[in-house]
Design a protein that fits this description.
Number of helices: 7
Strand order of the largest sheet: 1-3-2
Radius of gyration: 20 Å
Helix content: 55-70%
Distance between the termini: 45 Å
Length: about 170
């Protein structure tokens, strides 16, 4: 039993190349976040990047989940900028209506069918991508996806339909 666990943990170890790629992405994200390259910002950023990379490496190595990302699922992210812009506008209109007493802002917990599985690695990856991608739009917060009942629970302040991107990842209208 100990041998199988050791072999499994060996297979989960991150390669140096993957760790370097993660660190490079984090570093670029840091420069974008602070919008500058002053020495004091870069010193703090270097520490943040090292700590975040070590943390993510540890999480990856201890994770029980094995995902199989497919390119057709990953590229669904091209829709996110439009969804973010349109949902920000939607929330702005709701705020304006609420502030001017035209109509109160809503709070809707909704359920949608969602094709999910505990065993299929690609389907598990789709649930992760659906949660991350869909929650990027501010009016659509995915609370969770239950693989046993194949349901997705989400919250909105303005009712709208499930996006094409989320449907492409497994949601049912």
């Amino acid at each position: 039993m100990a041998r199988a666990s050791h072999a499994s943990s060996k297979n989960r170890s991150s390669s140096l190349g993957v760790s370097a790629l993660v660190a490079a992405c984090l570093a670029l994200g840091w420069v974008w976040l602070v919008a500058g390259t002053h020495l004091h910002e870069m010193m703090v950023g270097a520490g943040v990047v090292v700590l975040a990379t070590l943390y993510l490496k540890g999480v990856h190595e201890s994770s029980q989940n094995i995902l199989r990302l497919e390119s057709k699922d990953v590229v669904q992210c091209w829709r996110i900028p439009w969804y973010m812009a349109s949902k920000i506008w939607e929330i702005t209109v709701v705020l304006f209506k609420d502030l001017t007493y035209l109509s109160r802002a809503g709070s809707y917990y909704r359920v949608s069918g969602f094709k999910s599985s505990k065993r299929d690695r690609a389907t598990v990856a789709r649930t992760v991508l659906a949660t991350v991608y869909t929650t990027a739009a501010p009016n659509f917060i995915v609370i969770g996806i239950d693989p046993e009942s194949s349901r997705m629970l989400f919250h909105q302040i303005e009712r709208s339909s499930v996006s094409k991107m989320t449907r492409a990842l497994g949601a049912q209208p």
